[in-house]
Write a structure and sequence with these properties.
3 domains, 7 helices, 5-stranded antiparallel sheet, Immunoglobulin-like, mainly beta, 487 residues, single chain, elongated
């Protein structure tokens, strides 16, 4: 049930029997120790409004310098990730400040969405704050965009969310042709629901933030998060790199030439059981400077026969992944075995979120070498055409020098990768043992696998017969590679 505001959207103000004139609200109103909140939310600056769940419990007070703040325990459920930690909330305005570093990006999303109205309404207006605001006021202020519209109490509406049914006041403003709304309830610390849009000069405004209250409990005396473990801690304990640089670049057209897809991923040497991050740009085929809009896509893993073995969207409980702007950041844990993983960027098409796109799909497949945690397993499937060289070398068609030069080039160019191997200095003889040639011949005809062949290459390196550049592996890597080893 909705009752209208006293005027146009630029001049609001509402009241009712239950919300008489003079009723005020501020962000954090009624917040107290023992309160538990669970929100489903998204924010434009985090993966273009990809949904995550944020649960927090007001544990009590915390003294920070001369200020007393709320201390909240927090758990974030983000796809397959679980992040456990703490954040501090101000008492004049419940904006998050310090806390667990891994929660930083989620604290930012919380501040700019669930706590955003603290920019207009706070508990105290005497020391530079905004002070409580009345529901019957014609405006609470302007949004920060150039030509920003008034934020006004627009209407009273009874709404139902997973946490229950609430009588709310709709705070609203226009931006980029869209009407943004935040639903707040008197004497409740945070909004119940929101659906807002970013400001754009033309086109369809993408969402800025979107959230709703899933659960709310009062007087929770014990931590509701006992026994919940952070997946980030597991990754750190496993020795995974959590500060990932996306150094590997693939820039190609999709298979049927409908789009350009530029992929930047990291770490450079992905490890089974650790995270990998993809930054994907979806671009117009005829102009790689023009981003596509409203891209529905997925990331698949396929086996060597092209059969799908994994869908990242399905793992996150979604039908597809969605990028309103044509640029997407995706991270997930590598489940694939050491060797070569076939990752497919599958583009279903262009359409608004929730609408099935028309027209044929297209895709781009890339091969990503996956390392074992100890580096002892070959990290790349060797391209099949190299087997021809191995066979020719085994039967004497090409000589030792030509074969070694070919292997040197393949490793230097990172077409072929091998585990970390100590470089030998060479001995009195640089003759290649006959069993190495036998291995090459057997590998060429499929009698032995890649690992057995790699072991032969490692032997040549250890003995100093073959000198090749090695991938740099160190817990304190500078990102630089050592110089190549050549005679």
């Amino acid at each position: 049930m909705t009752s209208s505001a006293y005027g146009q959207i630029e001049a609001g103000g509402v009241s009712s029997d239950t919300l008489p004139k003079g009723t005020t609200w501020y962000a954090g109103e009624g917040l107290k120790q023992g309160d538990f909140f669970s929100y489903s939310t998204c924010f434009v600056d985090y993966k273009e409004c990809t949904n995550f769940e944020m649960d927090f419990w007001i544990k009590g007070d915390k003294k920070v310098g001369s200020e007393t703040k709320w201390l909240a325990e927090v758990v974030v459920y983000d796809g397959n990730k679980v992040i456990v930690g703490e954040m501090e909330l101000g008492k004049i305005a419940p904006e998050p400040t310090g806390g667990t570093p891994e929660l930083g990006i989620y604290r930012g999303a919380f501040k700019s969405s669930i706590a955003w109205l603290s920019a207009f309404a706070t508990s105290d207006g005497s020391s530079g704050g905004k002070g409580p605001k009345g529901f019957d006021e014609v405006s609470w202020g302007k949004i920060g965009n150039i030509g920003g519209q008034q934020v006004v109490p627009l209407a009273i509406e009874t709404i139902t969310v997973p946490a229950g049914t609430w009588e709310t006041v709709i705070m609203s403003w226009k931006t980029g042709g869209a009407v943004s709304k935040v639903w707040i309830a008197d004497d409740f610390p945070f909004p119940i629901k929101a659906k807002t849009y970013t400001h754009v000069a033309e086109g369809i405004p993408p969402p800025e933030y979107d959230f709703q209250l899933l659960k709310y409990k009062e007087n929770v005396q014990q931590s509701p998060f006992v026994g919940i473990e952070s997946t980030v801690d597991d990754l750190i304990a496993a020795g995974c790199d959590t500060d990932i640089e996306k150094e590997v670049i693939h820039k190609k057209s999709t298979t049927n030439f409908k789009y350009q897809v530029h992929i930047f991923y990291g770490p450079e040497y992905p490890v089974q059981g650790c995270e990998i991050q993809f930054l994907v740009n979806f671009l117009k085929f005829s102009d790689e400077t023009e981003f596509l809009n409203q891209v529905q896509y997925d990331i698949f893993v396929v086996d060597d026969k092209g059969i799908r073995t994994r869908s990242i969207a399905q793992e996150e409980g979604r039908q597809f992944l969605y990028s309103p702007s044509g640029q997407a950041l995706i991270d997930f844990v590598i489940k694939e075995d050491p060797g070569t993983a076939n990752y497919v960027i599958w583009v279903y098409g262009l359409a608004p979120n929730g609408i099935v796109p028309s027209g044929p799909s297209d895709y781009l497949q890339i091969e990503v070498p996956i390392y074992a945690s100890d580096g002892s397993i070959p990290v790349a499937k060797i391209p099949s055409w190299i087997k021809n060289n191995a066979g020719w070398w085994a039967d004497g068609t090409i000589d030792d020098k030509s074969f070694i030069q070919g292997i040197q080039f393949l490793i230097k160019e990172k077409i072929m990768k091998i585990p970390k191997t100590t470089q030998g200095t060479g001995g009195s003889s640089n003759d290649i043992p006959s069993w190495i040639k036998n291995n090459a011949g057997w590998w060429a005809d499929g009698t032995i696998d890649d690992e057995s062949f790699i072991q032969g290459i490692q032997f040549l390196i250890k003995e100093g017969i073959m000198k090749v550049p090695q991938p740099y592996q160190s817990n304190t890597s500078t990102g630089a590679e050592p110089p190549a080893w050549y005679n």
